[in-house]
Structures
1.
Amino acid sequence: MTALARLALVALALSALTGCVGLEGEYQARHVGEFLWLYTARDDEATARLVEQASDAGDAKAMVERAGQLRNTATHDIAEGIRLKQEAARLDRAAADKGDPEAEVNVGVLCLKKARSWRRFADECSDDAEAVRWFQRAMAQGNARALAYVGFMTEFGRGGLDKNPDQGIHPGIWRYDYAEADIFRRGTERGDAGGEVNLGFLYEHGWAGLPTREAEAARLYRLAADQGNAVGRTNLGVFYAIGRGAKQSDSEAVRLWSLAAQQDFAPAQLYFAAFFLAGRGKLASDDPAALAALRSVVARALRPNRCEHGWAVLGLASLYENGAAGLHRDLDEAIRLTTRLSVGYGDGGCNNEEEKAKLLTLNAKKHS
């Protein structure tokens, strides 16, 4: 087995511990599959223009999406970065005033962060109690992120809520009860993809008083996936990959992950890239969608103060080293990637001996 394949298999083993995408976390913040224009406009610039036009026209969901785009815009200009975040906060507040639950959660998060560096971006927020009010508004609409945040605030007695350490599994995760399961079930009965995903997740883990039924979870994930929901596609792909609730099929797993990855859904990109490097799923050795997913994972792995998914960085470096996947052989790029992984995190990088050994090998090849 090649070193590249070993890296990918390690990544898959770690991914298996994570499993399907849950009910809280940053990935629930962007339901890009719900926007009609993303089905027809795959070009990033064209998509951004369409989102901006819909936002300017007062569409609440477009405002939330536009706010996310602005927050994630990279710039080395500090003043411009502040301006972008202020505009993102303004759009979230405007969408929240229209009753959009995702925007209500985002405004609540800004209130929580006000005490730190985000103070200047959230002038309309007052304190933790204001954050709780926004979360509760979104929770009343069945928003999963809001449920998670209210669980967190209750666990630690913040925002005027009575402290109840038993209310959360650990900080930030809500222990769902029958009422929450009913919210998701009602959403499922209306054909809502978010309700289908969340109810499927409860069945997968046997939470909220529901029995553990992987086949039912798979059915619900499939309903959401058929509507283009990125989370449903990703979770159903996991089931196919490991043969839970569905017949094991690498090819079906990568098909679903490819679709979700094109929606810029990070977990799908992670799984898709791992299978690509491991040679699973009958993908072409130069599959452009898989390579794009790998590059997205690498871009996140190389962000400052991060130390994760080093296997993806080393995998892409190996592709450049060997001129594989349709890439031109480029030892300089392989060295650049490996160096950034090794020293790009401030004090000592990831302190990974494999990175150091790889760097020595690449430098030796370059000067041989």
2.
Amino acid sequence: MEGVDIACVLGVALNGGVSYELPDSRWVFKAFGQDMDERSTDDHAEVRFVTIGCDSDQSCRCTADEIKKGLQQGTVFLNEASTFWPQIAELCAEITFSLNLPSGCNAYATAPGRACSNPVHTDHHDVVILQTQGSKRWKIFWPPAHKRGRDPFSRGKGGDLLDATELHLALDVVLDAGEVLYIPAGFPHLTSTSNRHTFKTTVHLTLHWSAHAWFLDFLNLRSALLIQAGESEALDESSVPYDVLWGTPGLFNILWHTCSFPRSWTDLWPELILRLERAESGRWDIRHLRCTADVLLRLFHGYRQQLVHLSLQIFHRQISGFGNAAGAADIGVQVAEIASEMHELKEAVLAFVNMTDDKRAIKRFLPELEGRSSSNSRERASGVA
């Protein structure tokens, strides 16, 4: 808890809380840090949020003692752990650089004897679990068959309970200190500390990165291409073969797994067409789509590089600002501003894809094409350009 003590002294807001299960099988999250609004719901499968450690100015003043008390209730979690430990910020920076994707890290602590320390759910991010103390049992399941209207990367959340009949076990393992586990996005998982190996508080780090949240997967690229080309992007994923979504090559695959971008952005084109044909064979006019793809793929490349650049800036600020009491608040503001700019980039990509504000995206990602107007984009979409 040393890093947490220091962060509190420096005035860095804690982003996290305590999660535990109620007798009626609902889960409660007592949140502290950035999310200070109390929210509740009558939905049986939803979670309730109750703030702790807050004062009148809505700034977190949660102490390490309060966090330790939280262990008596359930799992204590700290989001954005790179804020508290510069070593974690350095690790996140390495992951971001290596994978060419924004990344982050959360820390979790659970007392021994918890039959279920987190309910079964899926996430939109890939994760690597680093067990640092004690041991924890992990059950990982294959992605369930897609259900219409359900987000495959948010199952088990927001009222969308995962039924036992949907779960097919892929791995059942106990992690001890020093061991590592990789869980791809969309794979349901749950944890417990009620195994015979656990005699003390178990602590692990969750390193995560999400291509899906930033539109950097083939499913999102498919939608963007079809919208720009004037085609319908509608796809009933429940009717698409399981392997076409989750296999390789599949629509849920991440774009460009490494920082070594292909020799040309055009190298991605055959990979995209392969997945389009697997999902809906014989539908496509390849020459028509290719006219649109040239600019779109270049734009996505520029967008990704700027996301990574800004993500690395966040970790640099966290590393350089740690331990500097006078500048801690300024560092927090700078990090928030950078994070906001990353989301503005995401909005710019959406505006371009939907052809509501082409100029903003072109200016940010492809300045050499800035002279083109929105009408040119629509000409590309109709195959005229």
